Amino acid sequence: MCGIAGLVDRPDAARGILAAMLTRVAHRGPDDQGAWVDDVHGVALGHRRLSIIDTTVAGHQPMASAGGRFRLTYNGEIYNYEKLRRALESEGDLPTWRGHSDTEVMLAGFERWGIDETLRRCNGMFALVAWDRERRELTLARDRMGEKPLYFGWVGGRFAFASGLSALASIPGWTPRMEEAAITSFLGTGYVRGPQSAIAGVYRLPAGSVLTLGLEELRHIRDWAWLAQRLTSYWSLRQAAIDGIAAPLADDPQTIDTLETLLHDAVRLRMVADVPLGSFLSGGIDSSLVVALMQAQSARPVRSFSIGFSEPGLDEAPYARAVARHLGTDHTELYLGPDDAVALVPRLAETFDEPFADNSQLPTMLVSELARRHVTVALSGDGGDELFAGYGRYFSILNLWRGLMRLPPPLRRMASPLLATMGMAMRPVASLLPAARGLPYRFDRLAERLSAGDADALRLSFIGGAGIARMHAGRPSRDLGHCLPPHAVRDTLRRLMYADQLDYLPDDILHKVDRASMAYALEARVPLLDHRVVEYSWRLPTAMLVHDGKGKQPLRRILDRYVPRELVERPKQGFAPPMGAWLRGPLREWAESLLAPASLRELPLLDVEGVNSVWRAHLDRRMDAGLSLWSVLMLADWRRRFSAMS
Fold this sequence. Notes:
Low-confidence stretches: none
Strand order of the largest sheet: 2-3-1-9-8-10
């Protein structure tokens, strides 16, 4: 796990700029730093290293291939690198290996099989940039599900890339301008969606994609439409879904046994490390299953980590403790108060690099910091909800959509603005009657959902919710790209799951896990997103995923073999900080500085007076707008930080 950066410039200028860029990603790799510049073509590659596999100098990057054709800077892990190494050795003579790093194996694959074929053979998470000296081409690639980030674009007229958006601010000529489409997306959902970053002209390489550009192409500024024509995919979630649906499996014990075998191997591969390793444990189904499979193949107690909160309804630590006790792990938990979470708030804009308002970012950072005190690698249970229908909102959306389908579209169109007007009218009543305080919000939410044209529009409303951000920013785009064709799947639940895997999973969940863990130089690995598991999940019939309105049935059936169901069977809890109370209390001074008119006028798409009106109503307890205000505050704080870099 590392941080990478680079650019194409005059060789003499590139060295100094690259050094400055690497300081901005130093937290991702505190163990080593490397820089390489092609003295003829001005291609500069940089690397900050968190040493996990082959911690010796033999793993130093940027690394050259044995034949000298390729130079690589790479962030991530290739879990099956030993298998690939054996395959390379079986196919003919190779130069003597310098060490046992996955980087060296990948480079040997590039020379033997080519880049695309090597990536198809790789099982891992990665973001990489490779310079092909022979063809004078720069290739950017990203892992299948989008676990590792890669930003790129033309800054100050130079082509540049990095693991973090902030690293690009080190380049002379950095004149950041917020991309309004991305900001609209953020205000609607709480995260930036798709390939366009929050900065105009800077992009995020899509998951599973490869972009190869010749040296002359790198010297001319290109827009996304041009770049998109040159993207290729070595793996496609869309095709995995279509192929899986076309070849469904039977609902029988053998199918579950095969899934368990896949999960067992996915966990085994992610336990390979030359440094201390553990796992996050919330006591829920996904993290409990990951820890159970780790413990089943470990000769000593696995290290597991959880955090607890004293506030009622927020504390999952007792559940994690019970699972850890049953499995026999070496468990560490830390109880935290609201002050511990609040203290992180001023660091959020720096940590998450783009506007990001998923408030589970706070406990993810806290548990990452706890784990890093003891280990360098932690396995996570993320991905189970998206792959196996675990979100309760799926069933709420399906029920609501069925009801909406019974209403004639003209009636829905008329009812939506009427309900919005009623919500506005209810605000004075809500300010006087405590029991009515939630009514305006409910009217706003129902008005928005009545206007939804399809189930995916409802999905976005459940993710983001109604609030001042939506009322003043418009709707986030629903164009996900490469959507499943109706003839391939007519199952609304599977279409919702596909949209989440394409959008919410990489741009919210994995963005959160990567930034929160790497803030403490902790490598987080996600075994449920092994591409073999993803592909297999699409072959499971929908009826096999859901029973009595509950999803994740295959994972539950496997976990039953390791943990008594009563230890994990409970309503999905998650972490919902009391933002409303915090903004009136310990965060008020911070919030007021960001909500000042001068600050808000720097933000696109927001009605300054409208935001301040809601802020005053929130302070006066006439409404609880904590979640809606949180999105605005995260945007304002991020804007202030990036303006300071200009």
